[in-house]
Amino acid sequence: xxxxxxxxxxxxxxxxxxxxxxxxxxxxxxxxxxxxxxxxxxxxxxxxxxxxxxxxxxxxxxxxxxxxxxxxxxxxxxxxxxxxxxxxxxxxxxxxxxxxxxxxxxxxxxxxxxxxxxxxxxxxxxxxxxxxxxxxxx
Length: 138
Description:
single chain; alpha/beta; 5 helices; 4 strands; 9% strand; elongated
């Protein structure tokens, strides 16, 4: 099993291979990347998709993002959500909404995961705002 190593070639092994992918930041982030950069990452992902037996994505959104570019691999891609709100597409915004709505019960405080490294496209600001609002309510 490999964590997707962007722009690295898959190993030339004759055994079942699996990857875990977090996102397609080069296509679906608020940042804009040059077409050459997008193409380079797309080609790398395509090579992995051709080689591996299964791709695990960390959300249904990431699964749909990959399929929007590479629909022919739908049988290989399985979502395994790690979000505290698996039915919501934007967990950060849901957390902020919960923190702002005082009529919701504090007995069911959400669990949320803060992305491990900073990135503009990861929406840390919304998570921080929600965390502050929740802390003020307790």
